Amino acid sequence: MDTQERIRQTVTTNPVVLFMKGTPNFPQCGFSARAIQILKACGVNAPATVNVLEDEEIRQGIKEYANWPTIPQLYVNGEFVGGSDIMTEMYQSGELQQVLTAK
Amino acid sequence: MVTPEYVRDLIARGLACEHLEVQGDGAHFEAVIVSAAFEGKSRVGRHQLVNKALGAQMGNEIHALSMKTLTPAEWKAA
Questions:
Q1: Cβ–Cβ contact B55 with A under 8 A
Q2: What is the CATH number of the domain that holds A10?
Q3: Largest CA distance in chain A
Q4: A14-38 confidence digits (pLDDT tens)
């Protein structure tokens, strides 16, 4: 299976997926840590996560998948929602909570 | 090392901006970008316009860029 197909299966078989650096308990980048905190604040305590530092193909492939060059990346119901800036703005405006409860 | 001025030039060359501020430490940058090109675009669409201007440097030499993307009307209201 090629990398794009692996990513597609990951985001379509899990309602909420965060591609991040590190793990929820040990994030390895401040932006990934912030993304996890925001999800927790929205009541998503155990999102599916993919540690891109453990898979170089995914780390490169995820940049092409949504034409988005940075990590973290949040997907809900297979759709790309945004990176940590957009998650922050959507959390502050209440939109992210809506997207996550509608999942 | 990448300077904030360099990042600002890259954005300005690829995107017509009414207002553009970039601060940073060489790897992590923060930008406030005001452009009429953002009208009618989602947040993801706006960031993608900026990322396109930055090209291959984004995610490589530029480790991270936090951005606020506003239309001129949103900028005036802010």
A1: no
A2: 3.40.30.10
A3: 39
A4: 999 999 999 999 999 999 999 999 9
